[in-house]
Amino acid sequence: MSTEFTLGAGGYTAVVTARAAALRVLQFEGRDLIVPFPEGGPIPDYRGIIAAPWPNRIADGRYSFDDVDHQLPVNERERATALHGLAFPLDWVLKESDAGSLTLTCTVGPSAGYPFTLELLARFALDDAGLHTSVTARNTGSETAPYGVCPHPYLVAGSSPLDQWVLDFAADSFLEVTPDRLLPLGLQSVEGHAFDFRQARALGSTEIDHAFTGLAFDGGLARLAVRDPAGTGVGMSWDESCPWLQIHTADKPAPIPSRIGLAVEPMTCPPDAFNSGTDLIRLDPGAEHTASWSIYAL
What we know:
Blueprint: E1 4-9, E2 12-17, E3 23-28, E4 31-32, E5 50-51, E6 57-59, E7 62-65, E8 68-71, E9 81-83, E10 93-97, E11 101-108, E12 118-127, E13 130-139, E14 145-147, E15 150-151, E16 154-155, E17 166-169, E18 171-177, E19 184-189, E20 201-202, E21 209-215, E22 221-227, E23 233-239, E24 244-248, E25 262-267, H1 273-276, E26 281-283, E27 288-297
Antiparallel strand pairs: 1-2, 2-3, 3-4, 5-15, 6-9, 7-8, 10-11, 11-12, 12-13, 13-27, 14-26, 16-25, 17-20, 17-22, 18-19, 18-21, 21-24, 22-23, 23-27, 24-25
């Protein structure tokens, strides 16, 4: 059985696994705020993981960085992409913990297609305002490294079907993608589009697996809220290190359970940033980068 860690504070309970530093459970007063997964088994659909050193997809697993070509393993075979980084299968190591906080660490690379070395540090802390997470990457190698990160929780507003949940987040544009491989085509305005949730409204049957940008940051934070018509809800906030937001309505073909949660992924860069260079972090030797986000009950 895999190692995991339980935190509690302010009516919240969180369970984090050593494998992938994944958030397996997050509850407030016994109510699920994320889609959980069973203890000791595989992590389905990347639920709750830390995706690093890149979020989302890299087309064909190929990229060029500082005029050197690299080939990553392709782990999303149906779309021929390298998906959600290299930290996912790793067992993270406990650095420190107490009743309400936890710090895990792992080393990414050097490996096939990523000849760089990063030390990742993930800190989880619970208080009356929810679960606060930060991920710090430090380049411990001798070469500048490309880097990006995101969390991968599936939020749960309540017991009603996802179609009835009311979504609210401020983004001016979204990244149009190819229908077959979900690779970037170009930015489109949300104005007049089914993806415009600048005013709170029900998701309905809208299917989303897209990145949004032009986010509204107020006091250094962007925010998203999703509410169940029964009166419960869950919110997420993140800092300006993440100017992109992936939203996924978790659509699955029958008979697989579909639309069981809303994936909300604040990202430091968009899909395929290792190729486009858009908001890609260049982490020099010895340099650090930190991204932070919070999840809380509404």
